[in-house]
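Question: Hello, beginner here. Any chance you could explain the protein record under this note? Any guidance would be welcome.
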Amino acid sequence: MVDGRKVERDIEDLPVNIKLSQLNAILLKIFLIVVFFVYYQTILIPGTLHGWVLVLGFTFTLPIVLQNFRNSHGKLPFDYTALGFLGLLYLLGFLANYSDALLENLQAYLLTLVCYVFVRENISTLPMTFLYSLLRYFLLCNGLLVILQFITGEFYPARYLAGDAPFQISSGFSDGPAKNGMLIAFALSFVFAKLLWAQARASFLDIVVFVVGAISLVLSASRAGLLSFCIAALLASIFSVAKRKQFRPNIKNAVVILFVFLTPLGVVLAGAFDFETLAGFRDPNIEKYGGNVVIYKLTVAEDDSSAERLGNIEHMLRMIANSPMQLFSVGFGLGSFISFNEGLNIHNSYFEVLFETGVYGFLAFVFLIVHVIRKALSRRDAAEVLPVLFALLSVMVFMAFHDVLRGRTFWIPLAILASFAYAKTEPKECPLGRSSGKLVH
């Protein structure tokens, strides 16, 4: 039997929700653009631009979330329950370790939860073609900028927006090579998976985008970024072969785009012994940036960076050995490792979650990821889910070498998958490779 009062309330709330959704759709577009093109703190405003957009968007999203909560009679979906549990552990861990925990880390982690909710609730207002177009334009524009920076040692937007910081390696629109490598790997993984399950042959623009993106990833000198894309592409390829009858992958596209990715990598490695002549640098301090750094990063496995990471992990294990029971409570607190280790991070997001939030926080984090991925794969078309999934996997590989979880890049694809997973009405069947349009909540 239909509850007439509930229907009447829903109708009254509908115009408000539509207006908020339209506003949030605009804010979400701005947010996604800013994340890829201005992903750092600038000298123009306090904090980050995407942080301000995120807070504003969440402010207008919160009434919709509360309305949905009321309509569901106080029942929270599993992902929000896990998110709430993580938020509680963040706060308890911070209070329990107040003298060592850092307030800015607590703020950053709480903003990640806000990011998840904002994207999850509003991504349905955007067609998935918007994200695909955004990532292609990012790869093209950022890639050309990386090549220009590599050749000249100039033209760093972050130098003017974030201050006159010294740049030694091509960083594109970012303020550092690591962040640049992560964003390129994310975008390349998405585009690769999108083309792998596309019905049509890759267009000339797709090939150009991939060539420029692949070259820029190599020139970024980010070993974590290279490894992230390679593993994501390998997993996507294995999955497509294993499920070729069900998902009908486009093998021709896969061969072409993998070839254009491996070619610049091979050229760089082949020129390792005479790279100064090959690059033709003007700067007398060539050993400090550019070609030699790329060669060094791609050919030397053990350096100061890797030694620092291993040292940080050993230091973390010693701290756990001294206070093992803290792992089974609320952890050592957000930012505590930085306080204990003279400002240095663990440089491993998984160890960071385990150390700072304890075993229960780590398990909640893992369960959240597994639940969202499984539910999304069971409910949405592969052409939509798999590009987002493999972009997420590229970030998850990157997380093994950098502290990423306080940023946005991990939470955005996870929230998109959650939006797929919790869409209330199933999409109509659509050909693989084409977007079925907007999600319905």
User: Anything to note?
Assistant: The chain has a mean pLDDT of 81. The chain has 18 helices and no strands. The chain has two domains: 1-75, 77-421.
